[in-house]
């Protein structure tokens, strides 16, 4: 691939928070990020990879560029991994309060976020996947104003007890599933010919 204007990654997403996080991570690798604000197809499936694959194929068809998409989910141990790949739907329907209700009086609050970044060239012939994970626990109450989705109830184990929503983007990027998947993508993307 040719990069006459320096390295650029085109991130197809309708979520400005995801883009803000990605922009900072990619800048660590001198990769400029461009947001293509579009909702790529989001299928329902048990696998984040299958969801990301369908999204990236839809995205390249629509914009004819090499692009990345990202799909993520929150997996709660005592709920056997729910909401997992259905996190977006559950966020829209039950929301943070719904998760807190499901977890009322539950002692084991272990959970993790998983992220899959999918890259495809415009021809859609070969898709590359990059994974990132962060272990944590579900808070007893929502805390913090930053971020999005389940950030107010997720406390990363490597942190200091604050939820993601109580952290700046830079702090969240130190631990987050998305930042970890994007760093793997960036390492690979930088090495492309
Ligand atoms: P998506 O399908 O990748 O957009 O993400 C599914 C859902 O998981 C989102 O709607 C959020 O509720 C949740 N989610 C994914 N990543 C994060 C995150 O970094 N923080 C909080 N919630 C997240």
Can you put this structure into words, describing what you see?
- With 193 residues, this protein is an alpha/beta fold.
- It has helices at 16-27, 48-63, 87-93, 95-102, 169-175, 177-190; strands at residues 8-13, 32-37, 67-76, 83-84, 110-120, 127-138, 154-156.
- The longest helix has 16 residues, at 48-63.
- The radius of gyration is 17 Å and the shape is globular.
- The relative contact order is 0.17.
- The structure holds inosinic acid (IMP).
- Inosinic acid binds at residues 15, 71-74, 87-88, 91, 113, 147-151, 164, 176, 178.
- Residues 15, 71-74, 87-88, 91, 113, 147-151, 164, 176, 178 line the site of inosinic acid.
Question: Can you give keywords for this protein?
Answer:
7 strands, 193 residues, alpha/beta, binds inosinic acid, globular
Which assembly state applies to the chains in this document? single chain
Low-pLDDT runs: none
Q: What structural category arises from helix and sheet content?
A: alpha/beta
Distinct small-molecule ligands in the complex:
inosinic acid
Helix content: 25-40%
> N-to-C terminal Cα separation, in Å?
6 Å
Rg (C-alpha, Å): 17 Å
Q: Hey, roughly how much beta strand do the residues contain?
A: 25-35%
Helical stretch tally:
6
- State the major sheet: 7 strands, mixed
SSE pattern? EHEHEEHHEEEHH
- Strand tally, please? 7
Overall 3D form:
globular
- Average per-residue pLDDT, rounded, comes to 95
């Amino acid at each position: 691939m040719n990069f006459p204007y320096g390295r650029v990654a085109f991130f197809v997403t309708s979520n400005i928070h995801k883009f803000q996080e990605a922009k900072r991570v990619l800048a660590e690798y001198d990769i400029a990020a461009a947001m293509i604000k579009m909702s790529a197809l989001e299928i329902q499936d048990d696998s984040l990879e299958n969801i990301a694959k369908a999204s990236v194929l839809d995205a390249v068809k629509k914009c004819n560029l090499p692009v990345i998409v990202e799909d993520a989910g929150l997996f709660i141990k005592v709920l056997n991994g729910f909401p997992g790949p259905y996190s977006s739907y559950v966020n829209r329907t039950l929301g943070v309060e719904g998760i807190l209700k499901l977890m009322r009086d539950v002692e084991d609050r272990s959970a993790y976020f998983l992220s899959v970044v999918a890259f495809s060239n415009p021809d859609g012939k070969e898709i590359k996947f990059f994974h990132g994970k962060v272990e944590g626990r579900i808070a007893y109450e929502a805390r913090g104003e930053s971020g999005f989705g389940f950030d107010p109830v997720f406390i990363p184990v490597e942190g200091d007890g604050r939820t993601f929503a109580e952290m700046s983007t830079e702090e969240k990027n130190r631990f987050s599933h998305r930042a970890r998947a994007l760093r793997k993508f960036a390492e690979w993307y930088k090495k492309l010919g």
